[in-house]
Structure formats: C-alpha cells, structure tokens
Amino acid sequence: MDILKLLKQQAEQVEVLNLQDEKTTVEYEANQLKTCTVAETKGTAVRVIRKGQLGFAASTGDTVMEKLAANALESASYGDAAPFSFPGSQPAPNVCTFDQTIADMPIARLVEIGKEILDLILPVEPEARCNIALERSIVSASICNDKGLDVSFKNSPLSLSVEINRVEGDDVLILYDQVGTTIWEKDYLEFARRLVEKLIRARTITSIKSGKMPVLFAPSGTLAFGLPLSEGLNGKAVYKGTSPIAAKIGERLFDEKITVMDDGTIDGKFASACYDDEGVPRRRNILVEKGVLKSFIYDLKTAAQSGVESTGNASRGLFNPPSPSLTNFIIEPGETALKDMLAGIDEGILVEDLLGLGQGNIISGAFSNPLALAFKIEKGEIVGRVKDLSIAGNIYELLKNVGAVSKEAHWVYSTFYAPYVLIPEMNVAGRS
Amino acid sequence: MRDRIQEALKRSKADYTEIRIEEKETTRVVFRGKELETANANIDKGGIVRCLIRDKGWGVTTFNNLDDLLTKVDQAYQCAQVGTVPEPIELALVEPVEQITTAEMKRDFRDITLAEKKALAERYNQVLLGHSDKIIDTQSVYSDVFTHLVLANSEGTYIEQEKPSVMVAAFATTRDGDNVQQAYESLADTRGYEYVLDKDELVRKAAQKAVDLLEAKPVKAGQYTVVADQMLAGVFIHEAFGHLSEADFVYENPKAREMMTMGRRFGRDILNVFDDGSIPDQRGTTLYDDEGTPARRNWLIREGDLVGRLHSRQTAAKMGESASGNARAMNYRFAPIVRMTNTAIDNGATSFEDMIKDIELGIYACDAYGGQTQLENFSFSSGYAYMIRNGKIAEMVKDVILSGNLFSTLENIDAIGNDFKWLNTGGGCGKGNQFPLPVGMGSPHIRIQNVVIGGE
Ligand SMILES: [Zn+2]
Q1: Contact B173, B138 (CB under 8 A)
Q2: CA–CA gap between residue B107 and residue B282 (Å, rounded)
Q3: Spatial contact of B349 and B418, defined as CB atoms under 8 Å apart
Q4: pLDDT band at residue B455 using 50, 70 and 90 as cut-offs
Q5: Stretch B320-327: mean pLDDT, rounded?
Q6: Which residues on adjacent β-strands are paired with residue A351?
Q7: Domain map (residue ranges) of chain B
Q8: Which CATH code of 1.10.443.10, 3.30.2290.10, 3.30.1360.180, 3.30.1330.200 fits the domain covering B2-215?
Q9: Cα separation of B181 and B189, whole Å?
C-alpha cells in the first residue's frame, strides 16, 4: 500500500521522500585506472506529525513499508511539538539540473576524461602521482505530503576530482581540486589547467620573513572566511543563539566591498534545484550586502521557531531529517583586476590552501591555520612557494578592512564561488 | 541467503570475487537546547560485490536490492573489464575462514524501548542545562547501532559477524557577550546498554569545561614545551603518524616509500607505537577485517625505529609483506581500503608529576577538538589547556592549536607517561569519503619539546 495513504490514516500530517540514485565512478590511483564502481541506492524517508508531535524514519533495502510506518509513528509518539506545517504546492523557479549528455555518458567517456587530465599533468610533472575520481550520477527524488505537494527532481551530477601528490625527499606537495556540474560544460578541463599552473609555480621554493604583511587570499583560500560565516549565517545557530551575528541584522559587519549570497537557482550548479528538500522553492538570498548583514538561511522548522519564512534552504540525506544548509555560496566579485592587486603588493603572500580549516571553535569567526599552499609575492610578482607559515585571526575583525576584491572569481569545490580578497595587513607567523 | 551468496560466487568469471551483505539498525536520540531534535530508528540494508580481474582491475557494485546477486556479480565483472593496470594485481595469501560469531551483550539495547533511550538522553541534557545559566545551547546524543555482516569470497571464506555499538555524547555551548565557547565529552562501547548508564559525571565535565573556557584567556603564540593528555596524544599519533603507516600511501609511490623506509629513525628509544584490531571490546576492534584477514598486533614504531605498516591484501602483495588485517570499509557502500583499527603509543615509565616538574613555562594540552594532517604537516586544536608554570599546572587557556612537522615533533617527544589509557570516545576516522569509521586510540601522557602554538 502507498505509504502516504497508509500514514494519513494515522497522523495529521505526512511527508514522504523517495530517493533513487545510480552512480558510476571511475578511479585512477597513482596514475593508473584501477577501479570502476556502479552504486545504486534506493530508499524512503518519512516524516509524520501526530498529535502535534514530529516523527521521522528512513530505510533502504527491502524493508516493508508497514515497518517503516510503525517506526515513524513511534518516533512521533516521543517527538517534540512540531512548530510548522508541511507546505502546499508553490510556484518555483525553473532551474536546470539535468543534462542528457551527462546521463548518457558511457563509462568509456569517463575513462577518457581521466586520461585527458593525466595528459595535462604528467608531461609537466612526470613525478606526480594523481588520484582521479570521475563520478556521474543520475538522481531521482520525489517529495509528496498531505497538502497535495508532489514534486520530483531529476539531477545529473558529474564530479571530477584530482589529487596530485609529489614527494621529493621530505618535501611533500599535495594539490587538490574538484569541480561539479549538472550540465555538461565545454571547458571541463579548466580546473585541471589551473592545477597545472599551481604545480609549476610550486616548484620554486623561497622564503619570507615572518611578520605583518599584506595577505592575498585566492578563491580557495577564502574558505577561511566562508566556513565560519556559513555557520554564523545558519538559521539554526541564530535561533540557538550560538551565532556571533545572531542579533546583527541591518548592522555593518564587514567592509563595503564584501557582498555574500546564497543562490540555489543557478543552472547546472551542484546545490541548485527548483525546490529544496522540503518542497519549498529555492531562491537567491542576499546575506551580506555591501558589508551590511541582511538575512540568514532557514528551513521550515528553524523558520517557524524564529518567526520568519523558510528561505528554501532545507537540505537532507536519506537518514537525516532536514536542516538548514547553504546552497551555492557566493562571495561577489569586486572591481579590481587581479594583476592590479598583485602590482600593489611590495612584499606579501598569496594564500591558496590552509590546513585544518573548520576545526576548533569556528563559529566564533576565529581561525588559526598552517598554510598548506602559499606563495610569496615580491614587487608585484609571484616568485615562489613558501612553506611552514601560519596565519591566525578573526574574520569579523579582518573583513572590516578589505584592501580590494578581484573581478576574477571561480568556483571552489563545486558550491563555493569566490574572488581574490586582499587583507592589507595581517600577521604571518613562521615555524621558528 | 548463504546458498545464494555461494552460488553467485561460484558462477563469477572474475579471478577473485567478494560479496558483503550488511544489515544495520540504528536508533538515535538527540536533544538540542530544550528541545528533542531526533528520536528515531532507521534500517539500512544493502550489499556490495567486488570482482578482480588480475590484469585489468577492480569492478564494484553496491545495491539495496538483494534479490539478484547473480546480476550484480556480472555487473561488477563488467566494471572490472574497464581497468588498465600496467602490471597484474596480486592479493597476499590469507587462509580462508568459515566462522559465525554472535554478539554478547549484557543488556541488549535492542530490547530497550525508545522511550527509555529518550529518557536517558533527556536526563543527560537536563544535567547540561541545569549546570549553569551561562549554558545557552546543548546537545545530548544517544545512539546505538546493531550491524549484522556477512562476508564471503571466492576463496572459500564465509564470515558472519554481529557488531553492536552504543554511544552517548554531550556538547555544551556557553556564552558571555561575544565570547562563545564549546566543550564536548563522549563515550562509546561495544558491550551493551549498561555501559552508557549513570554517566552524569562525564556529562557534567563537558558542561563545566564550557563554563571554565569563558574565563580562559587565549594562549600567547610561541614555542612551548607541551604535555599532551592521553586523548590528545592518542589523536595525534593516529592522525599525524598512523595515516602515513597506511600502505596505500606508499605502495605505488617510490618517493613516499623512501620517506617511510623501514628502520628510519622516527623518535627516541622510549617511543613505541602499534595498531591492534584484536584487543577485546575496543572501538576499532575487528576480529576479521573486510577482506577476511584476522586482526593482529602490528608494531609500527619500536624503540624509535619505523618497523611496520598497515596493509590490505593488495598493498601487502605489492610490497612483499603479509596482510595485516587493516582492510576496512565503512559500510556496504564502500570497498575496503587500508585503515587503522586501535592505534596507540605504548606505555612508558615517567609519572605525570615528573613530567611537568621541571617545566618553567609550558602548556598542558588536553583533548582534541579536531585536526588535520597533510602528510608530514599537521594541525590540531586541543579542547582545553592549562599553562604550566614553575612545574605546576596553572590557569586555563583557550584556542590552543598545535602545528608542526611530524618528523621533528616525534623526535621531540622526550618523555612518555606510565598512565596508558584506551579512549572510548564516540568519534571516528575519515579517509577518502569514508567517514566516520570507528577506530580506537590510546596513549599515556607524553611530553613534547618545542611545539609551535598558533595564535595572533
Ligand atoms: Zn584518521
């Protein structure tokens, strides 16, 4: 029997999520094509509200629907009061997340793309060991509820990731990048060319005297700001009072060069969709505009608790109830050309990757990290890789005074879009 | 089911075929703040087939529908055809085993009602909330997992195991103006429900730490002599060193192999490190790994010298060594890769008092709040820490982040405590996209000279 019907007889509100996923992965290990995997997932998750109390259950495999329904009802009998209702159908933006070219892509084509990536890297750096994963999925999901909501999505995510490992004596260089899209992109090797550029640049090792200096954060380096900010902007942390910016809507947080957005409606991006994972339309949320805090992100529950509307940011896995989560997170590009930013630096560093991001008490905005990959900038030129440096600070202090934000920007790890950001003066510590 | 598995294995055209079927029932209760956030039970059931064609590669299928194993084996075989390895893949020899083990729990958590589990998590949450009015947010977690696992391969191995696991965790967040602090305690066990009862003390410790941290000053950046408690030392040896001992890092990388050459000096004579999946009832204990290799003790560092590493059957064969029982998969969605089990710094001879008595200015760093390593470089946050002044533990400090180079840091360990302890925390290890895998960690207190502590 249809589980929605079955549960509707026993609960006031019901929501059923069905998920089906078929993922094909081709893996190169140390430059060799070694493993090919086909993974199928099929499962169902249900939420019920009975006597005003919320319950959840999920299962995969051949679990009988009666057992799943019983688990959900038992969960509801101990659940807390649900402060919200499941939504009815609402008009949603038209967001493209499916491409037949990707869906039809044969394993042989994935194998070939892997070879193309190797052909870019190995001629330049024959000693490099590359682990490459090429992953193509076809995801179908549907959400229906007692209000008559019945939406289904189809996604065709394609993800290419490369880890380059080069050991020379005790010097270990690791570079990693990943791109993801749901629409076939003509220039799918752009990220790999960027990696090769870094690899060449990293060959020269130089040194720099520690102390105060200008620090230029590359798009991947701006994750140092992005991660604490993404926690602080989360409606759950705001409701719980753990976000340091909880009560600061309308206040100036940062330099006016900083604008931050969450946009789940961009065609082809990993976190894009017409609807969020509760069936609320996805949208574009301006979070920080010219330095001023404008909004947080919410799902149905945290929105109801906070007395606002869901911002379409519910996200969930099969085995977890929804919670608010950023979709595509964007730091808006600025006005300055990267070459002009570089030209203005007499001596400083370019930060590409930090080690240990996201650890510690990150919601406070504080960070303190060794630099995994950084370059020295001397008289406007990038002159070589610098090792054994670390930086520390608090983003809510640092971003109050931003030197410049570049016109150039790119996607980092599929869902984060950022420009180069210059902090005019920061302490850079050496190892001894 | 056993017949169907063995039939599918027999019909496989691959050089080696392996089938793993897993059924996992999970109960989870989470209180956050004053609210119940989760109280539910989930069922996850699925399988994986792995086929090896020696001169091509591996083919893998994972699935939830267990009805048609023959098709899945065939599909995995087709996938394996895609590979193009330059030389044949060999697997180290492992005696086939046939064994069926059942779990013995004193109080089986599957017999406890959800109501009772909820009441337990609620009680711990009350302990957190009631501890201080500075506590603005809490999380009290109860979870249990019962896994039934079948592993069979084309060499005749057939193993059925039951793996119970039960866990409680307490998080406290305190706030004073803009100052927000967090602390955490957890406890996990494989023996039964009774092991997570009466843990009010542990929960209170998390609450008190979060309160104390509000008063703590940020540590002044610099180089210090650091004494690490068992938890931080255990996490350090796992993260900073253990992952380098995993043979998949070196087996196809001559340069990395050079860096991890057997006999290389890694520390002083006092330093001994091992990994052991056969220790009863620890979090990383696996009587057989996910390739059917029995667990054993693997010494990694003995008297300061590198003496061993951790293997899957494939890495072992490639390096001419024996399989060590370290091929592990997080669940049926993943093929096994080289992982640690229970990793530890062996007990030493120095008492804690002797360790700190000559330190004029140092740091006593406790607990690990997270960490990352990139081969020889590491960075760890300690959960909380104290200054050591004139041989005595002094005021609490916060934001203590240790970073450095593995080789020089191990060399700088100049005292090892006589107070060895296994840590029964609920966390897990991440590698590739397999996270969290239950692992055990253990250590006595250790003292490290010249550690760089970050900060502004
Ligand atoms: Zn680990």
Answers
A1: yes
A2: 18
A3: yes
A4: low
A5: 97
A6: A217, A374
A7: 2-215, 218-454
A8: 3.30.2290.10
A9: 28
Question: How far, in Å, CA of A403 to CA of A397, rounded?
Answer: 14
Average pLDDT for consecutive 10-residue bins of chain A (432 residues)?
88 95 94 94 94 92 81 89 93 95 95 97 93 96 95 95 86 88 93 93 93 97 95 94 92 98 96 96 97 98 96 94 96 97 97 85 85 95 93 94 97 94 94 58
Q: In this complex, do B452 and A431 lie within 8 Å of one another by their Cβ atoms?
A: yes
In sequence order, which ranges of B229-379 are alpha helices (DSSP H)?
Answer: 230-236, 243-245, 254-259, 313-318, 352-357
Rounded (to 5) percent helix, strand, coil in chain B: 25, 45, 35
Q: What percent of chain B has pLDDT over 70?
A: 100
pTM over cut 0.95 = no
Beta bridge partners of B350: B417
CB contact under 8 A, B375 and A61: no
**Dihedral over Cα of A49, A50, A55, A58: its sign:** negative
Facing A170 at nearest CB: one of B36, B89, B259:
B259
DSSP H helices in B30-90: 69-80
Minimum Cα–Cα distance from A390: chain B residue: B454
| Predicted local confidence at residue B354, as pLDDT | 97
> What is the predicted pLDDT for the residue at B456?
59
What integer pLDDT is reported at residue B433 of this predicted model?
81
**Which of A37, A43, A321 minimises the CB distance to B38?**
A321
Asked if B45 and A61 come within 8 Å (Cβ–Cβ), the reply is yes
pLDDT, position B76 = 97
Cα distances from B312 to residues A27, A249, A339, B92, in angstroms, run: 18, 54, 49, 8
Share of chain B above pLDDT 90, in %: 80
- Decide if pLDDT at B177 tops 90: no
CA proximity to B91, closest of B396, B322, B376: B322
Q: What is the ipTM of this complex?
A: 0.84
Mean pLDDT of B267-289: 95
Instruction: Please answer yes or no on whether A37 and B61 come within 8 Å at the CB atom.
Output: yes
Please tell me the distance from the alpha carbon of residue B36 to that of residue A83, in angstroms, as a whole number. Answer: 12
B370 to chain A, any CB pair closer than 8 A? The answer is: yes
Q: Tell me: pLDDT of B426 over 80.
A: no
Give the pairing of strands A416-430 and A404-412. Answer: antiparallel
Q: For chain A, say whether B115 makes contact (Cβ under 8 Å).
A: yes
The predicted structure's pLDDT at residue B250: 86
Question: What is the sign, positive or negative, of the torsion defined by CA atoms of A353, B339, A32, A108?
Answer: negative
Q: Domain A3-199, what fold?
A: PmbA/TldD fold (3.30.2290)
Residue B241 DSSP class: I
- Mind spelling out the 3-state secondary structure of A30-95? CCEEEEEEEEEEEEEEEEEEECCEEEEEEEECCCCHHHHHHHHHHHHHHCCECCCCCCCCCCCCCC
Q: Where are the domains of chain A?
A: 3-199, 204-432
Cβ-defined contact of A78 to B39 (cutoff 8 Å): yes
Q: What is the pLDDT of residues B231-264, one digit of tens each?
A: 999 999 998 999 999 999 888 778 788 889 999 9
And the tokens for B438? 């239950």
Burial B135-171 (b: 16+ CB within 10 A, else e): bbbbbbbbbbbbbbbbbbbbbebbbbbebbbbbbbbb
Q: Which residues of B touch A67 (CB under 8 A)?
A: 43
Predicted local distance difference test score (pLDDT) of residue A431: 67
Q: What is the pLDDT of residues A321-334, one digit of tens each?
A: 999 999 999 999 99
Residue B371, judged by CB atoms within 10 A of its CB (0-12, 13-18, 19+), counts as: buried
Q: What CA–CA distance (Å, rounded) separates A347 from A331? A: 26
- Cα–Cα separations (whole angstroms), residue A119 to A181, A228, B64, B182: 22, 37, 37, 48
